[in-house]
Amino acid sequence: MIVIISGDEMKTHLSEKSEIILVIILLITSLYCGCTSKSNDEENDNSSGSLFSYTITGIDPGSGIMKNTETALDKYQLKEAGWMLQTGSSDSMMEALLENVSLNQPIIITIWSPHAVFGVTDLRKLEDPIQIYNNPNQTRSFLEEYAPEWKDIEVASDVIASIVSNDFSESAPAAFSFLHEFNITDRVQSDWIYKYSIEKKNPQSIAQNWINENRNIVDSWIQNNSLDLGTSSLVLGQPPWPGVTVKNQIASLILQEIGYNISITNESAGDVYNDLINGQIDIMLAGWLPATHGDYWEGNTDKLAIAGINVYQTWLGLAIPNYVDESIGTIKDLAD
User: Over 70: is that where the pLDDT of 15 sits?
Assistant: First the structure.
């Protein structure tokens, strides 16, 4: 059977077919242009954020420096620019840094000093014009109120305090006297952290070797060891940070030498403060005050006391490897 199509029907058929083909062409062109536009946008993104994939490599969620960084994201309008804060741990942050440094790749991290990282690679500390992380005037005011014996020390940021319960000087006089004198430089603590984190040495060995090599310093800390022990056993709180891990071993050996039985409890910083308040822990040697651990201190000053300041000079903030774009010098630059 032969079907005869008239000229008009043929025109209608071709017209419909042409319309379909035209629609398909338009769709393909639209998709192609969209992809090309997106690709061009990405290629033309020369912002500071794109250099770091808009990601700040952080540590434990809820830690003081992470809270400060969340504040920085808001105050410096980094969230609006697309930045995000990646949580992890001190170890994962170090691993990410070392990997990127080995590949000469950009990375931005939350970091503090004392820390071993400054002995591994050259880092550029980003300036913090708003003083979210480092506020020496705030620290001086804090010391004048809560630790007046140390109000005239030179500070740049938080101090690291030896925190105890408010009746500790009476319940453990000899231990309190030691903590009152116990003080090291940020360089010494950084060296401890380097040996522990980078050289992977045993913290007990690091502590014993340091004491053996610095006997005169240790003796100056315990010159009043004729004081009563008070309680015979003490518990030290230990957040998961390399600095306090070695420091607790140093303190434990010295307190044992004085005559105490010592145990160490590993838990988060928040739990250490809670246990200090509840009397389950006696000593915390990693009290970054007044800013970093301010949330833990405020509201508990009737239960907690500062026995001493074991490190005067600290720094906290964001840092990048020195080989990264030299025009990035402040946190504010990250929004550009």
Answer: no
3-state secondary structure 254-266: HHHHHCCEEEEEE
Domain ranges of the chain: 51-132+317-335, 158-312
Are 169 and 228 a contacting pair, CB within 8 Å? no
| Cα 235 to Cα 261: distance, rounded to the nearest angstrom | 9
Quick one: which of 268, 273, 315 has its CA closest to 159?
A: 315
Element (H, E) at 39: helix 7-43
At the top level of CATH, the class of 51-132+317-335 is alpha beta
The CA-CA-CA angle for residues 198, 107, 239, to 5°, reads 45
Q: How confident is the model at residue 16 (pLDDT cuts 50, 70, 90)?
A: low
What topology does CATH give the domain 158-312?
Answer: Dipeptide-binding Protein; domain 3 (3.10.105)
The alpha carbon of 38 is separated from its chain's Cα centroid by a whole number of angstroms, namely 35
User: Given a cut of 50, is residue 12 above it in pLDDT?
Assistant: no
Helix axes 186-193, 242-258, angle to 10 degrees: 110
